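Thread: Newbie trying to understand structure tokens

Hi all, I'm a second-year student working on a class project, and my supervisor (Dr. K.) asked me to get a predicted structure for one chain before our next meeting. I've only ever worked with sequences, so writing a 3D structure as a token string is new to me. If someone could post the tokens and maybe explain what I'm looking at, I'd be very grateful. Here's the chain:
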Amino acid sequence: MQTDWISGQELADQLNISRTAIWKQIATLKESGYIIEANKKTGYHLVDQGDRLTSLAIQQDLQTRTLGRHIMHLEQTETTQRIAHEQAQQAAVEGTLIVCDFQTGGRGQLGRTWHETQGAGVAMSLILRPAAPLHQAGQLTLLAGIALAQTLRTLDIPATIKWPNDLLIEGKKVAGILTEMQTEADRINSVIIGIGINVLHEQFPEVLADRATSLKLATGKVIARAEIVAMFLNTFEPMYLKWLTEGFASFVSLWENYADRLNDLVTLRTRQETVTGILRGIQADGTLQMETEAGMKTFHSAELIYWTER
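---
Reply by user tm_fold:
Sure, no problem. This is what the structure looks like when written as tokens:
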């Protein structure tokens, strides 16, 4: 990132465009939230790029070949998942990312509302088109969880994974993952991975105060949201490519390294029953293993109960 003074003529020469075009681009950047000083003698100086989730802010740190190379940025929308579904049906290329600054109707597991504060969180949906069997699509939730946990730990944030789709910091939820699929006959047309991350939130409604946190609240760190998105995509892409060729089995031990309450007593609820036992990890297909009084049980779809519903 250029932080020193640079003349308009130098920028024009480097980019092979006119001084007038440079002026217009600078004006556009200012309107997008970038703080740029201008001086007739010394040129331009980037003071602060702000905390933007624009494609420019994300892609400047991107190292991927496919993921995030096409970005649709929205200031506000009801849910990025809905936009992603529409884009997927209109033949959006794999890796297309829908991201917004403020999501008004985000959804979590079991249709729950995802709380959001304007300009404080990340709401994004990633379109994938994997050549994989239908029954393996759910493994991408776990894979995205691994990639996000690894991203946060790279930033020295002690994130853990609550099976199957939440990330926690010291027992409080900081991120959630919602994976949905579009199918055609017996094949996957697209998988849409929706991710919400609490980044700069400074408070939550009383009903969520004991169970939700943000990166800023938990660690005191102020991290640019675009940086987190780019780091996640950089981490997730090689994992995704490996999953396409090798499946999920090679990720089991990595998931268990990040697992919350592994080998602890937990309670799990399915549509049919509530079960208490020792969480023993996951199998090669991503199913949860729990040791109960009746022996070892596996679960494909269930919810670990951490908090009392209000």
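A couple of things are worth pointing out once you decode it. The CA atoms of residues 57 and 226 lie 6 Å apart. The helical segments are 8-15, 19-31, 55-59, 80-89, 139-154, 215-219, 225-246, 252-258. Feel free to ask follow-ups in this thread.
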